[in-house]
Amino acid sequence: MGLFGPPNVEKLRAKRNIKELIKALGYEKDWRVKSAAARALGELGSTRATDHLLTALGDSYWGMRLAAAEALGQTRDLRAIEHLIMSLRDDHWRVRMAAAGALDKLGWRPITDDTEALYHAAKHNWDACIAVGSPAVEPLITALEDGHADKYALVRESATEALGRIGDPRAVKPLITALGDQHEHIRVAAITALGSIGDEEAMGALLSCLKDDNRMVRQAAIKALGNIGQIATHSLIAALNHEQRLVTQGAAEALGNIGDPEALEPLVAVLGDERALVREAAAKALGKICDPRATDALISAAQDQNVLVRMTSTAALRELHRKCSLDPAQLTRVLAVIPQKATKATQATS
């Protein structure tokens, strides 16, 4: 130790002074000295330091735990294995990753699904986590909720995607929480995952995403609600009356993706909304549902004062003409609205 300052770790390492480096591990005035001492002990590979490095694995500062885990891997002391396995549950992803790397150096391989899941999640081996399946859910949730990873949002985003692919309902609540993340890519990943799981508990949260400021997030919510299918129909029909345009518009688009005939009459009613973009979304959805009962409403919408609504309604009528069995009276009315070129084109492809 220095008489008037911190120990000179570099000099101690050069002299291979294990005893003083171990003392430097306890230098509480500066964590950088402690972590440097841990790394130096790892480089020297002395098992004399193992017990002290194991103690450092419990340090309150994650940087110290990281340095201790890396050092233990370099010492090649098998006594560290049990403690490093426990560090696969550390609350900081970089410590978990270092523990997995140290276990690799010690020649350890997981023998149970639980430890395999922890190991792969720590290494960010997402495909392997998905292959493990259900036992990987808790480690992935830990990765998703890691507040230390704000600067490394890709870790949380990838864990979110993996949870969606596994499809375990235990992930629903953490994924709902992730919908409030500051990173739009994580919000999108969480929405997509919830759509894949298809849990009714997520319905309200997904509907709230229809009013997100980010267009990418709103589109993901529309797609997710469509993927959930008919269990979302009633909630989306109720959302058609929402005061915010983005919510109503998104609900209409999602109902079109679902294609449930139960939504036909509510969507027809929305064709009378005062907001043109909402009317356009309803016309588009009705075209996807493709039910002859929408014929008269779409014919009226094809005369709308807004050009976008007119174009969308006409396109929906083309779909009716091409795909649906219209009665003679309906067919006559539809053909009177569809432009002649479009009519010939649809007849040619029929």
Give a quick summary of the entry:
The chain is mainly α and 350 residues long.
Q: Tell me the strand percentage band.
A: under 5%
Q: How does the helix and strand content classify structurally?
A: mainly alpha
How much is the radius of gyration in Å? 30 Å
How large is the count of helical segments?
23
The overall pLDDT, averaged over residues, is 90
Order of helices and strands: HHHHHHHHHHHHHHHHHHHHHHH
Which residues sit in consecutive blocks of at least 5 with pLDDT less than 50? Answer: 341-350
The percent range for helix content is: 55-70%
Mind describing the biggest β-sheet? none
Shape field: elongated
User: What is the count of β-strands?
Assistant: 0
**What is the distance, rounded to the nearest whole angstrom, between the alpha carbons of the first and last residues?**
89 Å
How does the SSE layout of this entry go?
Blueprint: H1 9-14, H2 18-24, H3 31-44, H4 50-56, H5 62-75, H6 81-87, H7 93-105, H8 113-122, H9 126-132, H10 137-144, H11 153-166, H12 172-178, H13 184-197, H14 203-208, H15 215-228, H16 233-239, H17 245-258, H18 264-270, H19 276-289, H20 295-301, H21 307-323, H22 328-337, H23 340-349
Question: Can you put this structure into words, describing what you see?
Answer:
With 350 residues, the chain is an all-alpha fold. Helices cover 67% and strands 0% of the residues. It is built from 23 helices and no strands. The longest helix has 17 residues, at 307-323. The termini are far apart. The relative contact order is 0.04. The model is unreliable at 341-350 (pLDDT under 50).
